[in-house]
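Handoff note, outgoing to incoming analyst
You'll be picking up this chain. Sequence as last confirmed:
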Amino acid sequence: MGLLSEGTPLTWAETKRQADHVRKHGILQFINQYHKVTKLMQDLRENNRGEKMDAMMELKWGDEIEYMLVKYDDDNKMVQVNLKATELTHKLQENEEENKLTTGLWRPEYAEYMMEGSPGEPYGCDLAYFNIVEANMRRRRAAALALCNDCDESLLSLVSFPRLGCGNFTLPPTKPTPKQGSPQSLFLPHDLINVGHPRFHLMTRNSRERRGETQPINVPIYKDKRTPSPFIEDLSIYGDDGSAQRNSKPDHIYLDSMTYGFGMCCLQMTFQAFSISEAKLLYDQLAPLAPILLALSAGSPIYRGYLSDIDCRWHVLAAAIDDRTEEERGVKPLKNDKFVIPKSRYDSIDCYLCPGSERYNDVEVVRDEEAEKTLIEAGIDRHLAQHIAHLFIRDTIIMYKEKIDQDDEEDVDHFENIQSTNWQTMRFKLPPPNSGIGWRVEFRPTEVQLTDFENAAYAVFLVILTRAILSFGLNFLIPISKVDANMQTAQKRDAVLTEKFYFRKDINTPYGKTADDGEEYISMSIDEIINGKENVFPGLVPVIKDYLANMEVDIDTHCTIQQYLTFIQKRASGEIMTTARWIREFVTNHSNYKQDSVVSSRIEYDLLKKCDRISRGNESCPELLGDFSTRTKQDIPPAYARKHRLLENKIKNGARRVGKEQCDRN
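Most recent structure output, in case you need it:
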């Protein structure tokens, strides 16, 4: 979603003229807010203002799920994206304001068929909270579905709409406008983008104009028995003037707009840390897990009506949001721009944040040296200064006339403008002014799943793993170059079953020390990383179970957590399919499939109808979900609610120790 400021939108030329102004004041805003938060925490400790300090340090967390709205035409056996998200989001937000709906918060998303739902308030650190996650997700889904027409409208937590850009795929009907509008796409109409907030059209237009062309996206096609070889589309039938044909690659599906990236749905988790040190620690330790969770949650094998040879959305996002100029991409020598930038705005992180992680930063970090100097001189440690200065090599792509001049002592919009338009696997989040919110870390790569059970399982798995990291002092660090390599591997077809990933061998080796045999990381399968490899690696789920063995929890929550962990283990081993593998097999086994990689309108209709029945719980699907049943509830047990504060303090003390011993060690 990002920063949702509003005002009078500036053209790209006007926005470009403000780029240095936004960078300069964004850095000052970060510095001022950083020191304000630091001073506030010191004052609260000195004055024993425990309640407010606890609010900023409590180990809270939450999820964000993106959904797509669809409409079925049962007579013609077709399905379309339903362009009424702004209308439904407003209705759900009205319920929030009137306190009729307290279990979910709803926010606009990029496309007019997308909505984002999150819990009404963050979850706490008590294990009992893990038993209400799925129930909360169910209530969110039910609240949105209640506003749909049960006969022909629905809401799906599906990564990508299979035939986005094919024929009559929207309701109401719209047509592409290749020469006008925000996306200027051969396949996607201007009206597909959210109409309720100016941010989305603005960044689409400005990103395209900044790059100097529509973003070319080439997705490798899945080569079946009757797929043409080479596979080359004639794009002139869509009104191409020749530029798209030149940018398209043989044996690839051609896409051409930011909308193809931001028009997909995902699952994200945000954690509030005990301190800035702990936030840095979590940021670093979760970064190597990003490609592992990406592969494990794979759910997007179809693009523009074709089966692709990838299972995940990340490559498409990176290309779709790539606004780098030819100079920044290294195609031409630097003349008008300042930096050659190796990656898109949407990609994996480029550096760790903790001092003890520094030796794993083996990739050159392109950064604004003037900004870095300003940050360091203002008392920001050099590792965090490097990270912020790296984000600030980008121009702002969204600017409003009323937001040009700001009070750097009170506002952070210029900082968040650039921070929120760097879409990386991890995000290190500055506490908002006057909010009572502490330092947070956002985990961003996970692909959304069809059911609330699956989404809850991935969320709970990751959150408990963060608790184990803090409690046991676990160390997952590997060189950034290996994390980058893993991100590429994670997107391959059936990566869970067939690929190997670099992963740290001895996760109990403290920061700053080398493993006894000098072998810090090895190649392992997802199965070995999750479930363990005898005499080599313990496995992430067994580590989580060791952590849980020492924790008190009610029977229902224990049962639910075990169901989630077993599900994750079976996904990793291949006993249960990933969503991508299940979708691929559905298509290739469909009676209308002609072994030519084409996903027809009828196949799409049958696929999404089945997805709908599964997501509503009206049809079982053991090959995708297994046979699991949780004891999820809407509220935590009263006895555990009373004990919540005591356990909270215990975990905080452990977090304080880990943060001091590991993250701050030079």
